[in-house]
Amino acid sequence: MSKTFTRRNFMKLGGAALAATTGAHLLPSSFNRILQPVHVVQGAVPEPDLFFAATDGWISLPVNPATTTIFHPDPLGPLDTIGNPFTTYIFGFRNVTGLDDTQIQNQKNKAQHSAPLFWTQQDTPFQVKLTNLGLALRPDLVDTHTFHWHGFRNVIPFFDGEPSSSVSVPIGRDFTYVFKSHDPGTYMYHCHVEDVEHVQMGMTGLVFVRPDQDGNTTLYPSGTYAYNDEDGSTGYDREFAMFLSEVWAESHWADAHIQLPEWSDYKTDFALLNGRVYPDTLAPNGSIDPFNPVTDANGDLIATAGYEHLQYQPLSSLVNCIAGERVLLRFANLGFKQAAMTLTGIKMQVVGRDATFLRNGSTSTSYATNTVSLNAGESADVIFIAPPHQGPGAYNTYLLYNRSHSQTSNLSAGGYGGQMTEVRVYPSGVTPQTGPNT
Asked: In order of start, what are the domains of the chain with their CATH numbers?
């Protein structure tokens, strides 16, 4: 200001403020109500639909003595519940919905991979609360974390999870993301802070949105659909999430041992399907219900007997179905390499790509194929009809696998594993699902 702010000027300013205040009381009562502060009555804050914790942890991946390196298995790995060492350090999420504060703090260093599977209903508000527990093995790293719903159309960037335009969560703090999903289909989510590292380290998972059409049994008897199709063409009897991710063993070792990997040297040592590699992809589920998680008294995941090494890899990829049923497979790829998921002997009908129904007006653009290609960050919804059961066996087996063999070496010489599972078709007797992948 060019003028000197004198005592006289100060008195003038004070008088003007007094006059303005007095004048407000002389205005008609209708104006007075507008100008006066609004009294806000605060109610109880609603509980979030889900409560996730961000932290670090350990998982198990195959060890081949013939090709063992200094990076795998990691000698720092703790022991599982029967005394076998975990092999691979990760960052990740845990579902801590319903746990008390002490139990939540107990989940530090107990992240899972892939991150918890969950789903929402179209046009229904949904809240995810995220707490940052910090990293037990690397207390020197004070990374913030976010929850970024990949491909989701946010009205405002505040809840997007991209840290330069929204909120990231420091250690010891919480933040609640609010979503209202308008577009059905299959998505994925991940931490967007230092996203190359955090995605590779395991802060990734699959999420999908159920359509408004669900519950209509006229179009398809089950009343469950992948999209709002209006003709029952995306109706299904069973659904299975197939989340694709990767592990570069050196980068995980480097984060555990306070080293910096050279990301331009990236290669896929392990290609994971729902956080596991074949044949562990066929093992039973652990606790996977996101809205009713089953944990022990400390809040920890419960290991399935005989599969203790998969305690923090709870999601099975095994597909059990009955001949004639329609089966929905929800593919999502958050690895860094292209995948080509092939179902031997059964045609898949691709009905959606990247949470977009493949229909233009009344014209269907869906297509039938044996192989679905997925680049990094892409998703696909496919439906197949289980073929008739043949032969004397209890079930017929069809392989579902990533035909990009070079991306699924699992540190083995000539062996195959990685992103592969089985579709088992029974003549009858498979119990109805209680949720996806059950």
From this structure: 50-426 (2.60.40.420)
